[in-house]
Amino acid sequence: MKSVVVHGPGDLRIDDRPDPVPGPGEVLLAMEWGGICGSDIGYWKHGGTGTAVLKDPLVLGHEVAGRIAALGDGVEGLTEGSAVTVHPATPVGDEPLPDRLAGRTNLHPRVRYFGSAALHPHTDGGFSEYRVVRAAQVRPLPANVSTEHGALAEPLAVALHAVHRAGAVRGKTVLVNGAGPIGSLVVAAAKHRGAGTVIAADLSAASLAVARGMGADATVDLGRGEALPADVELVFEASGAPAALGPVLRATARGGTLVQVGNLPGAAAPAALGDLVTREITWVGSYRFAEEIDDALEALRQGLDVSPVITHRFGLTEADRALAVAADRTSGSSKVMLRLDLRNPGH
């Protein structure tokens, strides 16, 4: 089978690897669609993302969906041919989480994640024609959800987790700073959870157009010098840019809540944080998700439309072009999709 493999910074290859065979308790998936994430771009451009550094070749991709091709021994409740997506996380070790973290499996101290170099040996992702997964990771797609949209259940789950971390949003005015794929999905998630007015801010007019497509009621074009609104009770920072923290904290109302969903650098970076104290803001981190992928699938079943966030599609063998487009802020790209099924390469 062909796989999208990063061997080092700037070194992406389409490698031939043996077709996998499911063992007991495992499922073989014939992959169909994958979405490119910022971490995939990081491995390709820099050989790492955050604190995870590439040591060996790695198959990219954790936003994926396909169909069940075969079931390993002992797998029940799943059917060959069914359209599915994947929960990409596998906690390592049997040590239980402390009571204060009950249910927050995303905070397990060691987690293997599709397409991640955080642990060694690395955990290959799903940008390949086939992938074997644990049966417990498989999530059947609702009948009205395509595998292309099903591949976006993972980033939608990230967005829903961020909204969950914010507490009650119904009827509130919400600001989302950063209208990339995650920010635009946060817009959709907040609207889905009943937010009254959602304002999206970004430097890119193209990104703001996507945010409007995902339900933003108003936008702020920072690239044209427009200012963030003042005194917003609930703010999501989705850009991950340290320079944005000062203005975003200033935009947050006194006693308001700021949810940090954009992945901040793992190294020291300057940021103006004084308003965190003087405005008594609650600053909450949001990391991946626990089981919100099930909430994402339910939202998709109910009709949440993720199609506006999809701007480009490429075949598996065009992965280098796809990553270049996804990494280029001038390309107008939001979510760039890979068609992984070489047996049916049509878009």
TrEMBL record:
Cofactor requirement: Zn(2+)
Whether Oxidoreductase counts among this entry's keywords is: yes
The residue ranges flagged as biased composition, category Basic and acidic residues, are 10-19
> Which UniProt keywords are present, listed alphabetically?
Metal-binding, Oxidoreductase, Zinc
Residues annotated as domain Enoyl reductase (ER):
8-338
Residue ranges of the region described as Disordered:
1-20
Its family remark reads: Belongs to the zinc-containing alcohol dehydrogenase family.
- Which PANTHER family does UniProt cross-reference here? SORBITOL DEHYDROGENASE
Report what the protein is called: L-idonate 5-dehydrogenase
